[in-house]
């Protein structure tokens, strides 16, 4: 019984469907309104230039459909939960949890890693790290633990994962935030 619950909790946490107290997904456009200046790390630009922004679209290719078929799935890759779980966000929640600017085609997006944002995405809350975390913002003391939830052997195209080199490709820290 305990194990069953534990498995469920971990699974939900892993793929972000355990949203904070009914928080909704606001979408990258919404986060990007404030996170677009170079002096605070221009997170939206780093993300747009990363492959994470393309993760959903990568499932809409012939290559993806072939991989899905090879794995024994009868559905197209983009309609297959076992693919979406690492390539998308918001595919498994009630539509009422998705705000207007949310776009599933944004793939692995801000809220995939930082949690659904409708309760924390105001300036006053965001400036107060503890409060933001209480409102559902997810931060990471050990980012590698987050990465390997998707960058692992369950990925059909997995060839290994080196945190240091891969983090360097998507690093988007705020130079103003004291560590
Ligand atoms: C209204 C403006 C605004 C919006 C919208 C916004 N943020 Fe922020 N965010 C801030 C400010 C201000 C800070 C504090 C850092 C600073 O002052 O440079 C911050 C900090 C953060 C931090 C770092 C927290 C810390 O202390 O380490 C993360 C992560 C973050 N935001 C993610 C998001 C995500 C994800 C979204 C969309 C769901 C979002 N933000 C939407 C303004 C905003
Ligand atoms: C693949 C996962 C992932 C995605 C996608 C992602 N982040 Fe992050 N983000 C992290 C990790 C890991 C850190 C560093 C550890 C931490 O501060 O929690 C971080 C750090 C940050 C910080 C700086 C915190 C600091 O203390 O300097 C901000 C601001 C932020 N992210 C905002 C965003 C925004 C806005 C987006 C979308 C445009 C986004 N992130 C997309 C994983 C991600
Ligand atoms: C929710 C699942 C998920 C998480 C969590 C995640 N990634 Fe990814 N990542 C992906 C997917 C899916 C792709 C492939 C996208 C594509 O190629 O279209 C990818 C691709 C990448 C790439 C591009 C690799 C290349 O071949 O150029 C880098 C770099 C990367 N991720 C770094 C990270 C880092 C660093 C973390 C942790 C901070 C992380 N990722 C967390 C799903 C994830
Ligand atoms: C455990 C998480 C995970 C699962 C499940 C997963 N992927 Fe991925 N996928 C990734 C990651 C991470 C990458 C990038 C690096 C790598 O290949 O490990 C990726 C890369 C890809 C790429 C390469 C994109 C490019 O840039 O060429 C395709 C295509 C792909 N995945 C299709 C699928 C299909 C189809 C399924 C379902 C049968 C699937 N993936 C299931 C995590 C996953």
Can you walk through the features of this model?
This protein is mainly α and 179 residues long. It has one domain (2-56, 89-170). It has ten helices and no strands. The protein has helices spanning 2-14, 28-32, 43-48, 62-70, 81-87, 110-114, 123-127, 129-134, 143-147, 163-170. The longest helix has 13 residues, at 2-14. The termini are far apart. Mean pLDDT is 91; it is low at 5-14. Bound molecules: heme C (4 copies). One heme C binds at residues 51, 58-59, 63-64, 67-68, 71, 73, 77, 80, 82-83, 85-87, 150-152, 154-158.
Count of individual beta strands: 0
Q: Which blocks of ≥5 consecutive residues have pLDDT under 50?
A: 5-14
Global geometry: globular
Q: What is the total number of structural domains?
A: 1
Rg, Cα atoms, Å: 17 Å
Instruction: Note the total helix count.
Output: 10
The average pLDDT value, as a whole number, equals 91
Largest sheet: none
Strand content: under 5%
Judged by helices, strands and strand pairing, the structural class is: mainly alpha
How far apart lie the N and C ends?
A: 40 Å
Encode the helix/strand succession as letters. Answer: HHHHHHHHHH
Which percent range fits the helix content? 25-40%
Hetero groups in this structure are: heme C
What's the short story on this structure?
It contains ten helices and no strands. It has 179 residues and is an all-alpha fold. The site of one heme C (HEC) has 23 residues, from helix 2, helix 3, helix 6 and helix 9.
